[in-house]
Amino acid sequence: MGKIAVCPGTFDPITYGHLDIITRGAKVFEEVYICVLNNASKQPLFSVEERMELIKTVTKDIPNVKVDSFQGLLVEYAKKVQANAIIRGLRAVSDFEYEMQITSMNKVLYDELETLFIMTKSQYSFLSSSIVKEVAKFGGNISELVPFPVEKALREKYKN
Ligand code: ADP
């Protein structure tokens, strides 16, 4: 069996927390598909295309990473790209319940697929895309939280 993993998420926008999980996941798997969820109900700040572009820019030095998007069931996407694992990041206990629900559901839908969790580096355990957007909106310093191209894109969004 190949070692292909999918790293799904909203990535609105990608942060150093996401990047940490992606970089570490890419050391374990032969190929990692970063998959942007096209989920209209979340009302994202960045379009799917903008999010994908930012991810491509900040992961350009990781050769075994591919950036894609999907709509619908993650298990169907995993089957399509022949992935046998999903990678998710875990920050705090508060992430656990939600992740357990999704993981259990995915297991019911597609038993071959394993979900693996990578625990975040402690310096990113508070970090989320929502927090970054909140700080950026009010002009706070986000240079420690997101790569420069993402910081630039956020400044552009909140210019007015
Ligand atoms: P979702 O809406 O699917 O939770 P996110 O973009 O918020 O999408 O997160 C995608 C993945 O990245 C999730 O597994 C999440 O736990 C992980 N993640 C987000 N922020 C961090 C962080 N600071 N450290 C580690 N993992 C993170």
UniProtKB/TrEMBL annotation:
Q: Binding residues for substrate, per the UniProt record? A: T10, K42, L74, R88
The reaction(s) catalysed by this protein are: (R)-4'-phosphopantetheine + ATP + H(+) = 3'-dephospho-CoA + diphosphate
- Which Gene3D superfamilies does this one have? HUPs (3.40.50.620)
Q: Which InterPro entries match?
A: Cyt_trans-like, PPAT, Rossmann-like_a/b/a_fold
Record-annotated residues binding ATP? T10, F11, H18, G89, L90, R91, E99, Y124, S125, F126, L127, S128, S129, S130
Q: What is its EC number?
A: 2.7.7.3
Alphabetized, the UniProt keywords read: ATP-binding, Coenzyme A biosynthesis, Cytoplasm, Magnesium, Nucleotide-binding, Nucleotidyltransferase, Transferase
Which pathway is recorded for this entry? Cofactor biosynthesis; coenzyme A biosynthesis; CoA from (R)-pantothenate: step 4/5
Cytidyltransferase-like domain location: 6-134
User: According to its UniProt record, which cofactors does this protein need?
Assistant: Mg(2+)
A Gene Ontology molecular function term for this protein is: pantetheine-phosphate adenylyltransferase activity
Q: How does it assemble?
A: Homohexamer.
Per the entry, what this protein does is: Reversibly transfers an adenylyl group from ATP to 4'-phosphopantetheine, yielding dephospho-CoA (dPCoA) and pyrophosphate.
Q: Know the name of this protein? A: Phosphopantetheine adenylyltransferase
